Amino acid sequence: MTEQIEISNAEWEIMRVIWTLGHATSRQVIEVMKKKKAWKEATTKTLLRRLVAKKALVAKKEKRAFLYEPLIAEQATINAQLAQNFANICQMHQGKTLAYLVDNLTLTKADIELLQQKLTAKQLNAPLTLACDCIPSEVTSVSEHDCCTLENDV
After folding, report:
1. pLDDT grade, residue 154 (50/70/90)?
2. Which CATH number, 3.40.630.30, 1.10.10.10, 2.120.10.30, 3.40.50.1010, labels domain 9-70?
3. CA 102/CA 96 separation, integer angstroms
4. Where is the chain membrane-spanning (predicted)?
5. Segment 126-151, tens digit of pLDDT
6. Measured distance CA(118)–CA(25) in Å, rounded
7. CB of 130 within 8 A of CB of 90?
8. Backbone angles phi, psi at 89, to 5 degrees
9. 144 and 132 Cβ atoms separated by less than 8 Å
10. How far apart are CA 57 and CA 59, in angstroms?
11. What is the pLDDT of residues 85-123, one digit of tens each?
12. Tell me, what's the pLDDT at 147?
């Protein structure tokens, strides 16, 4: 499925369990969420129903239980969510935001090597500066310097 699905933070928790297991019964998900978040059974069942309604999961009846399987791919869903989040940030702040993430995430040596390769390739065609894209210039008389300033607040 390639369309973007809006998933709440609580629904992300459910999806993470099912992506990790590949498929899971409602009982398995309920037990994990009880231990992980101290959620009540009804909360987990409600979230599972919502994810089925959103077509993020499929529920298959197996004997007396439902087996849930993802209909959306984990990495593609993560990528779409991050692209949406970064689309909401002024392009002048995206690089500093990415640097903040690099500083605050635990990365493997392989992750760091991949990032270095991507940044080296990206640097070949990177512009020297980026303009603020918050407000189109034809809409306002605010100068570029008054719109978004890059402060050392990271």
Report:
1. very low
2. 1.10.10.10
3. 10
4. none
5. 999 998 988 887 776 555 555 566 55
6. 39
7. no
8. -105, 135
9. yes
10. 7
11. 999 999 999 999 999 999 999 999 999 999 999 999 999
12. 59
DSSP H or E run through 129:
none
C-beta separation of 50 from 11 below 8 A: yes
Determine contact, residues 4/83, Cβ cutoff 8 Å: no
Q: Give just the sign of the alpha carbon dihedral 33, 25, 42, 74.
A: positive
Report pTM: 0.81
pLDDT digits (tens, 9 = 90+) for 53-72: 999 999 999 888 899 999 99
pLDDT band at 2 (very low <50, low <70, confident <90, very high): very low
Q: In the chain, which ranges are E strands?
A: 24-25, 57-62, 65-70
Q: Token digits for 133?
A: 């894209």
> What is d(CA 89, CA 132) in angstroms, rounded to the nearest whole number?
10
Return the domain boundaries, the chain.
9-70, 89-147
Residue partners of 54: CB distance under 8 A and separation at least 6: 5, 6, 7, 11
Helices and strands counted in the chain (H then E): 7, 3
